[in-house]
Amino acid sequence: MPVRPLPDSDNIVIDRTTLSRSCVTNLQSLAALISPELRQQFSKKLFAGDIVGFDKLVEQLEAAPNWSVALRMMEHYFYRAKISPYHNDATHFSDIVYKRYFPYDAYIG
Length: 109
Fold this sequence. Notes:
The protein contains 6 helices and no strands. By secondary structure, it is mainly α.
């Protein structure tokens, strides 16, 4: 199938001002987002009961300036610990960290 070029008027334009509104500048602390029950659950399921290791990762994630950096940190930990990023607790943890950067995203509950 041949490809036909589109005139500039038909090209998609991304309005970056709407993108900046979807994230916040003052990030909420992960300690406030993760309840004590979830903290215990994540440390048990994702860290084999190592609460110190869990707190260390959360501390590193607190310093992450944006979602892409935080995602790389979590992926690195999951890879080292041989945890599937699709594991229920791993996705729940990732969703909480995501909500820190995008609290108004309606797709993540």
